[in-house]
Amino acid sequence: MRTLGQKRAAFALEKVTTISCDNPKEFKTFSAGAPSMILQNGFGQALAFWYAKGGQNQRDKHRVLLDILQEWLCLCNGDVRNRFIPPCTTPREMVTALAAMSQDQYLAAQKEALALLEWIKRYANALLKGK
């Protein structure tokens, strides 16, 4: 049986090792600052900003990180049963779901996103050095 922390770490490792970003080095820098951006500006505001910056470019660093968060926060696969946000397939749906949540649900989703971002930051720093 794996803990949520182990599942989170494994997910982050898989995403960082298979990252399909225009510039992995920029992703590394961006992911390092993402948690502080959330804490300074608010969870929903940070995600909306990333959505605006990344747009439809699936390889933009903002969009890549947003897609990783979206997938993790509603992932139900194998022994992972995350229900931090309702199932969604697009960043727009995720931002809409966040706006409709209660404060407790919103804070739980933010806390989980910050925990995942910590792993992404660590793995990106370790694995994306040469790229």
From TrEMBL:
Keywords: Antiviral defense, Cytoplasm. GO terms for biological process: defense response to virus. It is found in: Cytoplasm. Pfam families: Cas_Cmr5 (PF09701). The keyword Cell inner membrane does not apply. Gene3D superfamilies: AF1862-like domain. Its main location: cytoplasm. It comes from the Bacteria. GO terms for cellular component: cytoplasm. NCBIfam families: cas_Cmr5. Belongs to the CRISPR system Cmr5 family. This is CRISPR type III-B/RAMP module-associated protein Cmr5. It comes from Desulfococcus multivorans DSM 2059.
